[in-house]
Amino acid sequence: MNNIDLSDYKLSESEGIFTYKNLNTTIGFVRFNINGEVEYIFVNPIFRKKGFAKKLLSLVKKKIGKKLIFQKPISPLGLKLLKSLDKNA
User: Fold this and answer.
1) Quick one: 6-75 is in which CATH superfamily?
2) What is 12-55 written as a DSSP string?
3) Given pLDDT bands bounded at 50, 70 and 90, which one contains residue 83?
């Protein structure tokens, strides 16, 4: 997660959404609510496995200050992300 050079990306925040973009495309975004529920997370396939999902979730956790709750349904890729987060907790 620390190997991402975030200077190349713009982080924007609106009510309940963090979004990473570069000049060409949306890298990824996460939608959440004040209860700490992650409603949706997406990372552009080109940018997957580079730590963006973990970075987005850490921003949510820092903002909310609570343990994150993932709403169902969770995709197989989402389950892998949850397992990797549990290992790093």
Assistant:
1) Gcn5-related N-acetyltransferase (GNAT) (3.40.630.30)
2) EEETTEEEEE-SSSEEEEEEE-TTSEEEEEEE-GGGTTSSHHHH
3) confident
Q: What is the distance between the alpha carbons of residues 27 and 48, in angstroms, rounded to a whole number?
A: 9
Tell me the backbone φ, ψ of residue 43, rounded to 5 degrees: -130, 130
Statement: residue 81 has pLDDT above 80: no
Whole-structure pTM over 0.70, yes or no? yes
Domain assignments of the chain as residue spans, ordered by start = 6-75
Report the 10 Å Cβ neighbour count for 29: 19
